[in-house]
Amino acid sequence: MSELIGEMDDIIKVLLIKLMESLEDKYEDYLKLVKSWFRMKDSRPQLEGELRSFLTPHQNHLHSQLLLRLLYKSADIQQIPSEPSKPKREHRNVHRFQEGFEPIDPTFYVVTERQEVNGEVPPFMVHERLLPDQSSTLARLMYSAWELGLEGSQPNVAEFLTVATQHFLKNIITAVITRKKGYKCSQNGFIHSLGTAMPNPWLRNVNKYRSEPFHSLKFDGRLNGMNGILKPAERPTREDLEHDAIFRLSASSAEEETGPISLYDLIITLQLYPSLVASNFVRVTNTERIYSRLCHPVIDD
Which tens digits make up the pLDDT trace of 50-106? Predict the structure, then answer.
């Protein structure tokens, strides 16, 4: 091993002499850069970048050979076995180890609160038991657009969806109430006066009160100079309204206690009027949910 180290020392000296002769005046600069690298002031990429600025390809080749020889020499020196020495006996202080150990109460790490998997995801309106407004709908649209990689959503889209949701729920609630209570219907089919008494259709004088009186459109004679102006419809007097209400109450049967609106009323209404929910998938899915809640109620319901 000593012979090998001697040979490698000679090779290192030869390479160093060749590099000195090739560098000439630049040797001092080269030596400063290498010393700063050995002292770990500069990194290897910094050293290579500085040397590449003034070294020729031949000088760079000598520099690489010199570094390789130095690395080989340092590796061989580390592999030389040192003189065997008597192993030192390790003294273990059992008392100090026991004093430094502190037992931990396992109940300290028990989870006491329920941890949600996706706590940052905005909750659905069905969980909050609130009707969606424009701001909440817009926030949900912005979050969905971010998930799908879109730019965003305009406020008028949220306003349109809010109005559509309100009309959709209004139609369902109206259908449920009209199946339980009486109502009036105008000539164009508009439903109003929910909860009024329903006259018995088998009575003699009831047929003429089953619909609102029809008033034909008339032109106002005082406005002959302006074509196309229609006369406003005549409003019924207070006496006529009172007479009509008394007649309906007297001709109607006694009302029975219907109770509050339940899931049974909702499921029957959806079966009678399937056009309330245009999507067959949405209607079937929510029908199954209603049946499951009727058969298997939970605490959240």
Answer: 777 777 888 788 878 887 887 777 666 555 455 555 556 655 555 555 555 566 777
* CB burial of residue 269 (10 Å; 0-12, 13-18, 19+): buried
DSSP string, 236-298: PPHHHHHHHHHHHHHHBPPPP---S--HHHHHHHHHH-GGGS--HHHHHHHHHHHHHHHHS--
Distance set, CA 264 to CA 23, 90, 186, 195 (Å): 99, 82, 29, 20
If you count DSSP H runs as helices and E runs as strands, how many of each does the chain have, helices first?
11, 2
Nearest Cα to Cα of residue 301 among 261, 264, 263, 265: 263
Contacts of 258 (CB under 8 A, 6+ apart): 180, 181
Per the CB < 8 A criterion, the answer to whether 142 and 153 are in contact is yes
Task: State the Cα–Cα distance between residues 97 and 99, nearest whole angstrom.
Answer: 5
Query: Rounded to whole angstroms, how far apart are CA atoms 163 and 26?
Result: 83
Helix (H) or strand (E) holding 91: none
Q: Cα dist. 86→60, 83, 92, 241 in Å? A: 47, 10, 18, 119
pLDDT digits (tens, 9 = 90+) for 135-191: 888 888 888 888 888 888 888 999 999 999 999 999 999 999 888 887 877 777 788
